[in-house]
Design goal:
The protein is of the alpha/beta class. The protein folds into 2 domains: 32 residues; 312 residues, 5-stranded Propeller (L-arginine/glycine Amidinotransferase, Chain A). It is 30% helix and 23% strand. The chain is built from 10 helices and 16 strands. Strand 4 and strand 5 form a beta hairpin. It is globular and about 50 Å long. The N and C termini lie far apart (46 Å).
Length: 348
């Protein structure tokens, strides 16, 4: 049997196995677990941070990266604990530090927390990811998450690719979730079915437009638009017709306007940021992190920073809004939300 055919058979068996479990749950009737993906603004136990080390792409700017991570950790620890994954402490040397995308996605199952370990393939096999893909399982085995159970899910999915309102609605982009570099064997309908089964989703809002130059994630939703309390969506908006983002982000805005009963809050557009080679960097204010009592918002030493903090404050009234310089993070094409993963209340 050829390699291609063998892989196809394995995928078919995995899909059939997953469908059998879903059908079995249906047949069991009353025993079907009630699943829910909490919103990020719900109470948390901690935030997961994976520290930069000299075997990651941060090596040329390691001191600056560690300083930024330290600033983020200090800001979080004013409100809640931080789980720091450092090779010398956990003996878990990951490939990189983007905890949002390979960290655990926590759901409630019949009211109790369950950690889901989806497959991380380096954003469509763009980068080496085997060690990153093993981090959640390694941390769980080491007791980092207490006695909360862990379930492995046979689906390529990154935490930054989905937004939840905690009440059954997910927001995502077709560019990422339907990209053939993730789950090429699954149709849109099959992916929707699996998201509903695993995350308890009842409504999936798809965006077909929007991108950021320099983004390696294939348009993660957490770089473009975010669900907020009280039927609010904060989103990236470009007001410069000469900018390459203007048309696609206007198209995304029109899509958002088609969603019923949402208050839309546009974020200001920062000036273009470039690396030393002249490559544009994905500076976005949408990549903020919500924690207990506060929202940490990325800043870029830009005149638009202050306006971004004001918009986020409107979306999260009553929380302290904390700006954090993420100019170093975007040099590796991510930002504040990308390097963090919240651990909901009850996990620890």
């Amino acid at each position: 049997m050829g390699v291609t055919r063998r892989r196809g058979l394995i995928r078919t068996v995995c899909i059939l196995g997953w469908r059998f479990r879903c059908r079995l749950e249906i047949l069991l009737g009353m025993n079907i677990p009630q699943r829910r993906l909490p919103a990020e603004w719900e109470p948390q136990d901690a935030v997961l941070l994976v520290w930069p080390h000299d075997q990651t792409d941060w090596r040329p700017m390691l001191a600056e990266a560690q300083k930024t991570f330290g600033t983020i950790a200090e800001a979080i620890e004013r409100f809640q604990p931080v789980i720091r994954v450092q090779p010398d402490a956990w003996n878990i040397p990951p490939d990189d530090t983007w905890a949002r995308d390979f960290g655990p996605i926590t759901i409630e199952e019949d009211g109790r927390p369950v950690l889901l370990d989806f497959t991380f393939n380096g954003w469509g096999e763009k980068f080496t990811a085997d060690k990153d893909n093993a981090v959640t399982r390694s941390l769980h085995a080491a007791g980092a998450f207490g006695t909360t159970p862990l379930r492995t899910v046979d689906l390529v999915l990154e935490g930054g690719s989905i937004e939840s309102d905690g009440a059954g609605t997910l927001l995502a982009t077709t560019e990422c979730l339907l990209n053939p570099n993730r789950n090429p064997h699954l149709s849109k309908e099959q992916i929707e079915e699996q998201l509903k089964a695993e995350l308890g989703a009842t409504n999936i809002l798809w965006l077909e437009n929007g991108f950021l130059a320099g983004d390696d994630t294939d348009a993660h939703i957490d770089t473009l638009a975010r669900l907020c309390p009280d039927q609010t969506i904060v989103y990236v908006a470009c007001d410069d017709p000469a900018d390459e983002h203007y048309a696609p982000l206007k198209a995304m805005e029109r899509e958002l306007q088609q969603f019923h009963n949402y208050r839309l809050l546009p974020l200001p557009w920062p000036s273009a940021k470039y690396d030393a080679d002249g490559e544009r960097l994905p500076a976005t204010y949408a990549n903020y992190l919500v924690i207990n009592g506060a929202v940490l918002v990325p800043a870029y030493n830009d005149p638009a920073d202050a306006g971004a903090l004001e918009v986020i404050e409107k979306a999260f009234p009553g929380r302290e809004i904390v700006g954090i310089d993420c100019s170093t993070l975007i040099l590796q094409h991510g930002s504040l939300h990308c390097v963090t993963m919240q651990i909901p209340k009850g996990v620890l």
